[in-house]
Amino acid sequence: MGASCQCKGVRACALCEHDRVASHRLNVSRIGRAFVFCPKCKLCIELDPQNGELGASSFRLEGIEVAENAITEDHEKFLVDAIESAPWKDSQSGRLKQDFGPKVNFKKRKVKCDSFLGFPAYMDVVQMSFSRIPGLNDFVPVELCNLKYSPERGSCIDPHFDDSWLWGERLVTLNLLGQTVLTFSQAQDFDDLTQKQTHYDAHGCGSEQGSEALGTRNKCQPMDVVHVLLPRRSLVTVARAARSEWHHSILREHVTETRLAMTCRELSETFLDVNNAESEQGKILLEKARVNPEL
């Protein structure tokens, strides 16, 4: 294992890849049917593996929103320069990270806020981009995690759920430098988590003439995945079924150029509800989650 590798358990990067890990990682060879997400009609449409054309089967996966050109080229350059001027820490699966937020032990459900000094000054630009996106004008981030992906390191992130005890309904990521693909897979396809099978109705793409169904009732099969293209400077929101019923991941095969991901998370209702004991910590976090000009 390389000196800068932080992989543990079944996690792996290009520095520490071995056979035991490869059998656990989701990759293109393990995928059954692949669907692509259309950001306009919000349908997941089956991709024909033979010719790469869109097929007749489709379904809706609620909770995915992709906004292209969420920031300008000038703002992207400003953000990248500011991020790269700060030190990176090695993370798992070949990624580098910068964290701004509380220290959390999710297993023991403990939150420490002492070391959280607020957000770096460039967060103003990020929050300005939120205000322009429908449905995000009330989004109040309490954590920022910058992740750097590079093909040389074999960067990826395995299928997972984000925590829902501390973090709220919406996960918001700003995609910088390079485009990639966010992949959704069903939780029951993996040994570590189980999730009941979900059924979806097939719908047609909307048009001025109305919608035509592309198929009858569609049942997702084992190892079905949904690929969501994230263009450079786009912003993706993950919520509802996409957040709570499907794993999300970045496949190594989809990291073909350096990419910076700025992911922001909001507080869960548990920490916002005044009737819960956690609300006091929620108040502290909201107070600290502001731009700190010194960072």
Automatic annotation (TrEMBL):
InterPro entries recorded: AlkB-like_sf (IPR037151), ALKBH4 (IPR032857)
Alphabetically ordered keywords of this record: Dioxygenase, Oxidoreductase
Cofactors named for this entry: Fe(2+)
Origin: domain of life: Eukaryota
GO molecular function, one term: demethylase activity
One of the protein's GO biological processes: demethylation
Keyword Oxidoreductase: yes
Database matches in SUPFAM superfamilies: Clavaminate synthase-like
Official protein name in the record: Alpha-ketoglutarate-dependent dioxygenase alkB homolog 4
